[in-house]
Every structure is written in C-alpha cells, then in structure tokens.
Amino acid sequence: MAKLIVIIGITGNQGSSVADAFLQDSGWKIRGLTRDPSKPASKALAARGIEIVKGDIDDIDSIKAAVQGASVVFGNTVFSEAFSNPAAAHLAKLGPGQTIREWCYETELQQGKNIADAVATVAGLDLFVWSSLSHAKKWSRGKYTGVFHFDSKAEVVDYINDVYPQFAKKMSTLQMGLFITNWKWGQAAVPWEKLADGSMVLRIPGNGDVPIPLVVPSDTGKFVKALVQLPPGKSVIAFGDRLTWADYVKLWSRITGVPATFAKATVEEHSALAPGGYGEEMAEMYAYAMDFGYDGGDPSVMSAEQLGIDVPVTRMEQYIRDEDWSPLLSRT
C-alpha cells in the first residue's frame, strides 16, 4: 500500500519541488495543502494526480484535517511579503513600537508553531521534515539579533523539542542553503552592481571568508526524499556547492564571460540598498554567514555526504551555464 506524504505549502518553491520528487515514486500518494486550490498552480498539481486540499497555516484546525493519515509531513513557512514590500494593511497590524521585521518574525514563528501543533496530533506518523535555518542570534552569541527570517524557523525546532518531546523524536530538519536564484529579487537581495565599464562587482557584508552553501530551490525535494530513507533525528544542510563569495564570482565570470570582482561591504552599506529594514535584514544575514558560517557552526548539522546519502544536486557551474543572466546584466 502506498504511503501518504502531506506537503504544506505545495505551490511554493520548496513544496512544489518535494511534490516533483515524490511523484516519481509509485510507492507514495501526495496530498498538498494550499490556501487557494482554485489558483492555476494548484490546478496544475491536481492535474498531475496530487490531492489538493484547502488549508491555511494561520488556522490550526485546517492543518490538522489535512495531515491526518500521513506517514510523512513536509512543513515550511515563508517570511511575510510585508518584509520586502509592506502595505498599509500590514502596517496597521503593528503593535506599539513594533517594526515590520519584528511583526514578520512573530507571524512566521506562530505559523510554524501552528504546523507543529497540528502535525503532533497525527497517529502513525513516521517522519516530520521541517524546513529550518540556523539560529543566528544564538550561534553568533548575540552579535546578529536581526536575522529574523532565520530565527523564526529555528525557534520552531526549539518549540517542538520543549513542548512535544515524543513528536520531536520523529522530526528531521532540512536547512536549505542560500538560494542562488535570489538575485532575481534585486540588488538588496543579492548585491550585484554594474559598473560604468560594464563589469560587475558583488559586494557582500561580513569580515570572514567562509564558504557559503549555495543551492538551487528546485533541489529541495531531492533532499527530502533522501531524509525519508533515514531514521528521524537528522539535521542536514542542503547545497549544490560550498563556495566562498570570491570563488563564486570567479566561476560566474569565467562561465558568463563578463568581467566581475568580489568586494567586502559593511552592514551599513548594504542596509542602505533598501528602506524599511529589508536591506538591514539581508545585510545581517550575509554578515552572519560570513562571520560565523551559514549554519553558525552548529555541530548537529551535517551534509548529505556526511550522512552517507547520495543526492543528485545541481552544481553551481551547471546552474550558471543554464541561467539567463540578461535581466541582471541589463540593470543600470
């Protein structure tokens, strides 16, 4: 009998990748949770034989209903769009003295807790895979306290360990490396700058020269499929390559043929690239990863190779060759 995997947020980058990975295996049935089953992305997945159910991670009861009967649940949350593009409706929700980043952090943390509360009720669950990130405030020993989109995910793991110790024994965590596709979100997301002579420079905040785990989002499902083959209790960092930013820029330049250099920036310089705290959030994330490592040096986090699993990852050279860089190169 086929086992059931429930994918929370199935139409997103990570969720759709997990669906792709498990669609290739006849031993699995797939159920996807989405806020809007009527949207084109939901209908496209349903047309491929996936059971699509309506659910909202702000509504615990809807999550509970969706995950019942699951052998495996993949859970992930996304930092609110208000983080980079706050609207009046978002600002109206802020408490006294609260910043938009703090509101996004508290919202995502609560959504993660909602998922945990719901999945903890599943009888017969074999594995819960939580898409997490490292706890920047903890591992930087308080130096970087504003990497809210990391800490909100990491603190869900703490919540599960504290509140549901038995459920925690069925959990594995997946830390996705830095999405190498983030340049498409603009300079504040990935600080490429085009110089007057047509060359490019990538300016990254931070003091160190630590290799950064770089990953293509569409590889998410490959790592989840690998974790399903292992006993719970694993914490894996997902990447195609670990490269210093200087080495990445050299590789990018060699493949694209565009002259490019790497330069270190300050948190203050990067913060100025976008208002409202977005630039500052990204600046602290880059500096944290450069100074302490993307996973903060957490000794529990292992690579797929260390876990003895073979994951057919997309290497950065292949990604660069296959990508259309014209939108980046045409920026003024």
UniProtKB/TrEMBL annotation:
InterPro entries: NAD(P)-bd_dom_sf, NmrA-like, NmrA-like_oxidored. SUPFAM superfamilies: NAD(P)-binding Rossmann-fold domains. Pfam families: NmrA. The keyword NADP applies. GO terms for cellular component: nucleus. It comes from the Eukaryota. Keywords: NADP. Residues 2-301 form the NmrA-like domain. Belongs to the NmrA-type oxidoreductase family. This is NmrA-like domain-containing protein.
